[in-house]
Design a protein that fits this description.
Length: 335
């Protein structure tokens, strides 16, 4: 028995969607996800797949839309953006009490911290880093209408919409006061840059959401925050999650190991590939810090009330992390 999986009903549903699968199925919760739950499951032949479902218990409205996530991943299949193959969406709550969808299991490592990065050769670290910015550039150059995602969301006023959305979450999940969050929000509204163009925005583009194999990205994961809007938000977020060797506070970050491309090179390659200026990138980096603080607050509260199942979690460290994000945002905004 595993939390979040009705083994009998899910097995019956899966048998009708994946030809040749041989039950019984063995499910395990994959570590590293703090929002939607990701399970790896294997059959008696050793064939492996993935099931994604919302967190256990109450979740915020529209925050964990499995149908939307399945639609995005399916639409990008066959593009230059690597994604796992999809095998079906279940929206019948009688099967597993919540919607879920199936994907193929992609082999490789996920760079959650420095340990897997240290096992990579230096040449692989560099080639992966260059591929990561190439994939982001390719994603932002895709016309959403060409892949059936033109109606995924409004294309204009992305930052305004995001500020509204995450302010709502911040207020709905707040458990304590953080003055830097409020001051950063004020400054973000005060100095909004003009949005130039629109693209598919991943929303959580970092090494911890990428499967790496042979020095390249084998699959981009966790599309739950994806929408249409200002692509520079993705770039700012990626840069925040791409610290260099010796950078304070980045001792366990995967890219703080020799061999990964530096932020300056990442920015230069993105500008060259897309033709977009990164002159205001510090605003987007500040916005990404603030937004992650609001997202982290939501995750913190879900763990606090036990909605994320039986996973080990350091509540005190996560709570402090929200304040760190807020201070980082304020520092960038004040220049």
């Amino acid at each position: 028995m595993i939390d979040g999986i009705n083994l009998s009903k899910v097995t019956d549903w899966v048998k009708d969607r994946i030809p040749g699968i041989v039950p019984p199925l063995d499910f395990e919760l994959i570590a590293g996800g703090h929002s939607n739950l990701t399970y790896k499951f294997t059959d008696t032949q050793g064939s492996a797949y993935v099931l994604r479902r919302p967190p256990l218990g109450h979740v915020l409205e529209s925050a964990h839309d499995m149908g939307r996530e399945h639609r995005i991943v399916s639409a990008l299949s066959g593009s230059s953006v690597p994604v796992a193959p999809t095998h079906g969406l279940c929206e019948d709550a009688d099967v597993n009490e919540a919607p879920f969808y199936l994907m193929g299991f992609v082999s490789g490592v996920v760079l959650h911290d420095q340990r897997p990065a240290q096992k990579m050769r230096e040449v692989e670290r560099r080639s992966f880093g260059l591929h990561a910015i190439e994939v982001l550039s390719d994603l932002h150059l895709i016309d959403p209408d060409d892949v059936g995602l033109g109606q995924l969301g409004r294309k204009e006023a992305y930052i305004e919409r995001q500020l509204k959305r995450w302010t709502k979450q911040w207020e709905a999940t707040k458990t304590h006061e953080i003055p830097e969050m409020d001051e950063s929000l004020r400054l973000l509204h005060q100095d909004l840059p003009a949005q130039v163009g629109a693209a598919i925005v991943h929303g959580d583009y970092r090494p911890g959401n990428m499967i790496v194999a042979d020095g390249r990205m084998a699959a981009l994961l966790d599309w739950e925050l994806c929408t249409l809007g200002d692509p520079l938000a993705d770039v700012g977020y990626m840069l925040n999650n791409w610290p260099s060797v010796g950078e304070p506070g980045a001792e366990n970050a995967p890219t703080a190991v020799e061999g990964f491309p530096e932020r300056d090179e990442i920015q230069e390659r993105y500008e060259a590939a897309t033709g977009r200026s990164l002159e205001r990138i510090n605003y987007y980096r500040a916005f990404s810090h603030w937004r992650l603080g609001a997202i982290t607050q939501g995750v913190y509260k879900r763990y606090l009330v036990g909605a994320m199942g039986k996973q080990e979690f350091d509540l005190a460290a996560y709570k402090e992390g929200i304040s760190v994000r807020a201070r980082s945002a304020l520092k960038l905004l004040k220049g």
